[in-house]
Amino acid sequence: LAAKKTIGDGVLIAVDWGTSRLRAWLVDSAGEAIADADSGDGIGRIEGGHEAVFERAVAAWPRLPAIMAGMIGSRQGWREAPYVPCPATAADIAGGVIRFTTERGRPVAIVPGIAIRSGDGDVMRGEETQVAGLIASAPGFAGTVILPGTHSKWVRVEMGAIADFQTYMTGELFELLSQKSFLRHSVADAGGDLSTSPDFALAVRRTAVEGLPFLAGLFPVRARQLLADVKPADNLPYLSGLVIGGEIAAARATGRFDAGDDIRIVGARSLARAYKQALEVAGFDAETLAGDRLVLAGLTDLARSIRFLPEKTG
Amino acid sequence: LAAKKTIGDGVLIAVDWGTSRLRAWLVDSAGEAIADADSGDGIGRIEGGHEAVFERAVAAWPRLPAIMAGMIGSRQGWREAPYVPCPATAADIAGGVIRFTTERGRPVAIVPGIAIRSGDGDVMRGEETQVAGLIASAPGFAGTVILPGTHSKWVRVEMGAIADFQTYMTGELFELLSQKSFLRHSVADAGGDLSTSPDFALAVRRTAVEGLPFLAGLFPVRARQLLADVKPADNLPYLSGLVIGGEIAAARATGRFDAGDDIRIVGARSLARAYKQALEVAGFDAETLAGDRLVLAGLTDLARSIRFLPEKTG
Fold first, then answer.
1. pTM metric for this prediction
2. Pairing of β B143-147 and β B152-158
3. Chain B touched by A239 (CB under 8 Å)
4. How many Å apart are CA B156 and CA B143, to the nearest integer?
5. Would an 8 Å CB–CB cutoff place B144 in contact with chain A?
6. ipTM for the complex?
7. Ramachandran assignment for A29, one of left (phi > 0), alpha (psi -120 to 50 degrees), beta (any other)
8. H/E element holding A198?
């Protein structure tokens, strides 16, 4: 076993700075995390002052160059890193990284998002770094990467590039429907994992297997409780199954994936598990990957491209 | 021309008492309205005291029997009129009317809603009276009746009966998406009729003709504004077209209507026109009917059945 790394071994700070959270890792020259920091100072929760907020978050570490991904690079962030066009390889993303030196003299690099400009278009910001991490750790991978969340992304990876992607407002829709719509009277959160409920699987089967249109499935959530005596605690997983099953059906109908695809789900454990479970009901196998680890892998890979980290040896 | 009717000619008060509004008509023995009253004292806006609220609303009229439809007959209303099972003729609905005499001695009849108890089930309360009015005024009608609104109803009428129906949360979903979701930053209400916008027709075409799944169409509302420079004032009709087009596509996919069906749209003028316009884009002709007139026709028809009004002569 190697000797335990100390803060002095750090050469880079890797940062995932989104709307609601700031996460940072102190990284050594091999791209391994030595220490990490986490705060609720997401860019949607602070009023500017990004430099001071960041310095406070990493005050315990040496003043090293920092590479950042996420909404920090949006127009509402610290500095805007304009979208790179899709398809995009990791090199394309690295080519769009913006760099500047802070008032305190720290070099900072911000990773750009990716935009599709044909048709209605689509955008991602933050997820491209997770996918870059996946591509870096599995260079031969080709298939579909699902990044569930408030706004789920379905990403096609081909020949080491993000070839195409599509966004679904699934998490947000679930929040609105379960908390703000009149269905809120028919659902209740009893705690625990929604996706293990038979009602979750039932709703996924109806939408993703039997073809029940999502919009036709909503009012029945109320009717189930009113007429079929379904308990609100069983109706919440049903509603979750409707939105996730509806998303799977829509992604399939629009050609985002098909039988035989290699599917990876990248995200927090319980959400990734729910999608894996839903895909199984729909007849698809998928592998789950931890989002945290991939964002770090993506940040260090991009840092190497822009010489914030030395080339990988061996 | 007949002599102008006076309040003294009234024999019945017909009432549409929903969640947000109370409307009443003073009706003569032919079922014609002599006077009307309107208040914001919907059952969702008052705390009980239904008798006092009602007496205040019709204080200018003689103390006549009153027949009421709408949420006033729900568990949260004045007295519960339990759901009549579907399929239901006007006679079945009349058979479920509950009657009582108020503390001040006024006879009151409350019209029941209709419930489907197979499958997940579905319910309506208030719309059955409009459909009864349509059946009474067009006894040979067979086809689909669409009653758009917060919760749109698609009703199959066959052989003078409500044969089947299905509810869509279209109006509520549009409110949530345009006002509470992150899409609110990408839409703006410039006033005027949304359904005359080319963006409304475009969204209807995509969902109801080209098969774009509703869920796949949501995030592009944001992308259109961000990347394609679509103005928020053009994006609101687009979002409206997505929810209405999505509803039409779902109703069709679930067998609620098909080519060749006789389609009637019952509702307030601008909403009925939007649905007529959307159906035209989807390739269907529909006739619009005023909801107010049909609810009155339904109430007087049911009042005749329960002898609150004399039989129609001639």
1. 0.94
2. antiparallel
3. no
4. 6
5. no
6. 0.93
7. alpha
8. helix A198-204
